[in-house]
Amino acid sequence: MKDLKVVFMGTPEFAKEVLDELIKNTQVILVVSQPDKLVGRKKQMQMSPVKLKALENNIEVFQPIKIKDDYQKIIDANPDIIITCAYGQIIPSALLNIPPLGCINVHASLLPKLRGGAPIHKALIDGYKKTGVTIMYMDEKMDSGDIISTAEYEIKDTDNVGILHDILSKMGAKLLMETLPSIINKTNKRIKQNEAEVTYAYNIKREEEHIDFNKTCKEIYNQIRGLNPWPVANFILDDKEVKALECTYKLKSGTTAGKIEEITKDSIGIGSNDGIIYLTKIKPFGKKIMDVKDYLNGINNSTLLGKMVK
Q1: Hey, which of 54, 147, 149, 172 has its CA 20 to 30 A from 182?
Q2: d(Cα 149, Cα 189) in Å, to the nearest integer?
Q3: Model confidence, pTM
Q4: Is residue 95 part of a domain?
């Protein structure tokens, strides 16, 4: 595969693992990534992880603002194949038939489940028992092309977005390397997606980060781990936002949703629809992330008991 000319399109940390394997095993002639952006309070310009990986390996990087209007450079590169992974923009149809071996996408779900930009988050938030990665041909719609290969992963109760992200990133890179020879030889499968089984995983909105304690313990637990370590679930205590990163829970009748029902030495227990959510790691407003036991050491615990959060 070393003579395979690849244009790779990707942006975040998830895609970097895939690019790394492609650099080792193929000829990556161009990397396409989202434009650099301002981040943090100081608004410092930051390059994407994929761009940094490309520059480390002396590979040219192309960063169009809108790929649908600016893609001639990709055509001029004359690749054998275009491979995308979490690029962040819809690839224009004009590119789909340019490479002889087509346009391939690495997606972090078992398609047709969880099409969209946040499949790892939503697999946890929506309580999926399993997820995985899919290698697929691209078409004009979002994540709807023919499936070439898949790899499954059984989700553990202890998984959060950070853990699942790293697992699926490595799985995706490995599966792509295993699948590429059949794509090159044109012996690969092409399985149509079942439209009746489609679910979506659109990018997380700000309002989806807020915890509704009227939900069940399991739903809240899944939300908290499904947003940890980014963008992180939150609730309001004393008119200030508190971020919740880790918790356990206990099913119990007679609790009041949103009421601080218990204080233990290392947790704050908040009532839900069917029990108590015990927060064990939080980020209080204006402070760093900390274990709840450390937070409780710095305050008068008795002032919390019975308070309502929202």
Answers
A1: 54
A2: 7
A3: 0.96
A4: yes
